[in-house]
Amino acid sequence: MQRGEEGRGARRRRRGGRGRGLLVPVRVAVSVAVRVRVRVRALAAASALAASAAAGRGRGEALVLEARLARGDIAAVIMEPAMCNQGAIAPAPGYLEGALAACRRNGTILIFDEVITGFRLGRSGAQARFGVTPDLSIFAKAIANGFPVAALVGRGDLMDMFATGGVLHGGTFNSQPVTMAAMVAAQNELTAQQYESASRRGVRLRDGIATILQESGIKAQVTGFELMFHVGFGLDAPARSYRDLLKLDKVLYVKFAHALLKRGVRILERGAWFVSFVHDDAVIDATLEAVRSAAQEIAAGK
Ligand SMILES: Cc1ncc(COP(=O)(O)O)c(C=O)c1O
Q: What are the chain's domains?
């Protein structure tokens, strides 16, 4: 599947499968701002979910979701199982389980967007890490080491609808041989041993950055996972929701990014850091050295 096709495929699936018209995209696993793109009447649910995120209670948030689903007009809920598109936030305890149970009780399909989390939060993605299996999942990015591949996977009865004619899915680049070969090659590299050593280096980088920023007097929260984490300037406490991330000091972080660029390290201005298998100990050491120097520069206000 070509990048971008996975989400469209999932949306076609849920329309074909449920005979309902609404899709609720939950912006984060802790149920933050829900953007309901399809119909305005779901906006009430969005604000309710955002409010519940502030309370930070996983089960409570799932109950809010359930209240919305109980109206019976939602075909599918799509969410990142851990919020990594913005920040790097693990789901509140009980939230994913509660969301799945709420979907089950109301005949709604649960879709996990593992485009970022897939193959990064572990060999089997966030769903294995947090022990919750959705009905459908979408993967991309790390599935083929950056080659333009996306995959929609999930329950057999839902996937069968592509074959039995219930849902039409076409695409010029579907199963394109070169990208499929890239995917097979990438998958063969994703061994437990590789994850273990890369995770150790990722934690060293993540924790090293946190220590350096603290020593430099820069207010920041460094949160997230081993191979994917987030550096948030200006936060007093780890972000638990999209709303918390609105308080980020983005101006200072961009200065940090520029200071790092001058030292040969290119980072994403939105605060996300990704560690790959080629980031060996020498790369981690060099990066930490650059981070120390860049942090000192921006702390001094140069
Ligand atoms: C979490 C997440 N889901 C979906 C997408 C959409 O991917 P695509 O570029 O295939 O539309 C992105 C894009 O980066 C993403 O980060």
A: 5-189 (3.40.640.10), 192-299 (3.90.1150.10)
